């Protein structure tokens, strides 16, 4: 959208709130952007298979789109449906997830697949409140799955949607709470085209990342991600790669291999055992579960 049009939207919203005319004009502009500049070639948008959409949405929770674009087709080829994922050996699952980060998502995704098979006969439920109770699926992801898999007219906010609404309607507000955004997101929703509408908002939000200072810094919900270098996340990833490669060892040898203190590594190993990644043998050596 042009700066002039954005300024007009802001002025109209400040003067009269979210009127019907403003909603329609905003919807038209967002969908025009999507029609001409949307990311229509992303593989997870080509089919509305619920399993594939679950996988893509979990991947996209904490991994950038270019990385998911590489990893997603490989993962789907190896684990094409809920049954294949549920039956996968954990070592194969975690090996396939390498490069995505936040490896707990892979374990939760497998637990989700097991529950879908056991509790729902292999058919993913459509209701967001049911989806939200599945492992690794919170309120926002449950709604994104409902919208993209089933075209359900749900109302939710994620980082790109938040960026769009703050930029277009709260440019002069120092701190914006999601509670202020939800009524606008609901008012602007295209109920019969929820899937495309949210794709359009997310694509527009992604485009804003490179064209304006990040509006999300003014969100009350904004949290800056901690640095990866030297973090426990980095150590966890290094330990997992070692054990997946077959380099079993006790906490002392593993600490030396990853270049962290024995006390720190021992605590991380205990945590990863509790989370289901590793088991400790009687000899003291650790291995992937």
UniProtKB/TrEMBL annotation:
Belongs to the Nth/MutY family. Transmembrane segments: none annotated. The keyword Nucleotide-binding does not apply. Residues 59-207 form the HhH-GPD domain. Keywords: DNA damage, DNA repair, Glycosidase, Hydrolase, Iron, Iron-sulfur, Metal-binding. CDD domains: ENDO3c. Its cofactor is [4Fe-4S] cluster. It comes from the Archaea. The lineage of its organism: Archaea, Methanobacteriati, Methanobacteriota, Stenosarchaea group, Methanomicrobia. This is A/G-specific adenine glycosylase. Coiled coil: none annotated. InterPro entries: DNA_glycosylase, HhH-GPD_domain, HhH_base_excis_C, MIG/MutY.
């Amino acid at each position: 959208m042009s700066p002039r049009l954005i300024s007009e939207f802001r002025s109209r919203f400040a003067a009269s709130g979210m009127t019907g005319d403003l909603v329609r004009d905003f919807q038209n502009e967002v969908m025009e952007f999507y029609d001409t500049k949307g990311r229509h070639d992303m593989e997870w948008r080509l089919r509305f298979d619920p399993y594939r959409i679950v996988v893509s949405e979990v991947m996209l929770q904490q991994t950038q789109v270019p990385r998911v674009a590489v990893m997603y087709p490989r993962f789907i080829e190896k684990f094409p449906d809920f049954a294949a994922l549920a039956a996968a050996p954990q070592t194969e699952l975690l090996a396939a997830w390498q490069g995505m980060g936040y490896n707990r998502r892979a374990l939760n995704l497998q637990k989700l697949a097991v529950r879908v098979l056991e509790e729902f006969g292999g058919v993913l439920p459509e209701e967001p409140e049911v989806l939200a109770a599945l492992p690794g699926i919170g309120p926002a992801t449950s709604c994104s799955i409902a919208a993209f898999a089933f075209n359900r007219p749900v109302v939710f906010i994620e980082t790109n949607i938040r960026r769009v609404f703050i930029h277009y309607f709260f440019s002069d507000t120092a701190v914006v709470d999601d509670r202020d955004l939800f009524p606008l997101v609901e008012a602007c929703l295209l109920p019969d085209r929820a899937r495309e509408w949210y794709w359009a908002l997310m694509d527009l939000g992604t485009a804003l990342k490179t064209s304006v200072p990040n509006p999300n810094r003014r969100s009350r919900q904004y949290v800056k991600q901690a640095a990866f270098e030297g973090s426990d996340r980095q150590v966890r990833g290094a330990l997992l790669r070692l054990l997946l490669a077959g380099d079993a060892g006790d906490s002392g040898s593993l600490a030396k291999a990853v270049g962290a203190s024995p006390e720190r590594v021992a605590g991380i190993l205990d945590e990863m055992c509790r989370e289901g990644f590793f088991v400790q043998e009687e000899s003291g050596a650790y291995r992937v579960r």
